[in-house]
């Protein structure tokens, strides 16, 4: 929540990418949530995030979270990729789309 007070992680285009480093996290992980109606979240463009990607990495991972964030953000800037994820009907479909990134 403190991170959201600094600047929203809802980047717009119906996407949010909260990210954190923690001693509790033992290896980098990305969790994905999809909500067809969107989540009430202050975003940069006023859109409701339908795709939320949570990135969590260990404190000692140096710039791992930045590399993940950069790769994911670049892919999500592509309208076709983003829309395919929003329109996905199953976790398998989302997984397969993400494996192409």
Automatic annotation (TrEMBL):
One matching Pfam family is PTS_EIIA_2
Q: What are the recorded Gene Ontology BP terms? A: phosphoenolpyruvate-dependent sugar phosphotransferase system
**Where is this chain's protein located in or outside the cell?**
Cytoplasm
GO CC terms for this protein?
cytoplasm; membrane
List GO molecular-function terms, semicolon-separated: protein-N(PI)-phosphohistidine-sugar phosphotransferase activity
Please state the protein's primary subcellular location: cytoplasm
The chain positions of domain PTS EIIA type-2 read: 1-101
Under the heading Gene3D superfamilies, the entry gives: Mannitol-specific EII, Chain A
Which keywords belong to this entry?
Phosphoprotein, Phosphotransferase system, Sugar transport, Transferase, Transport
InterPro entries the UniProt entry points to: PTrfase/Anion_transptr, PTS_EIIA_type-2_dom, PTS_IIA_fruc, PTS_SugarTrans_NitroReg
Which domain of life does the UniProt lineage start with?
Answer: Bacteria
**Subunit structure, as described in the record:** Homodimer or homotrimer. Seems to be a monomer when not phosphorylated.
Q: What is this protein called?
A: PTS mannose transporter subunit IIABC
Q: Which organism is it from?
A: Staphylococcus aureus
Taxonomic path: Bacteria, Bacillati, Bacillota, Bacilli, Bacillales
């Amino acid at each position: 929540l403190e991170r959201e007070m600094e600047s929203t992680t809802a980047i717009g285009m119906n996407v949010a990418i909260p990210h954190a480093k923690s001693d509790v996290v033992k290896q980098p992980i990305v969790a994905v949530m999809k909500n067809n109606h969107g989540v009430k979240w202050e975003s940069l463009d006023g859109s409701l995030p339908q795709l939320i990607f949570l990135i969590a990495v260990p404190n000692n991972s140096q710039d791992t979270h930045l590399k993940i964030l950069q790769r994911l953000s670049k892919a999500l800037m592509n309208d076709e990729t983003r829309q395919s994820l929003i329109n996905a009907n199953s976790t398998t479909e989302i997984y397969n789309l993400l494996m192409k990134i």
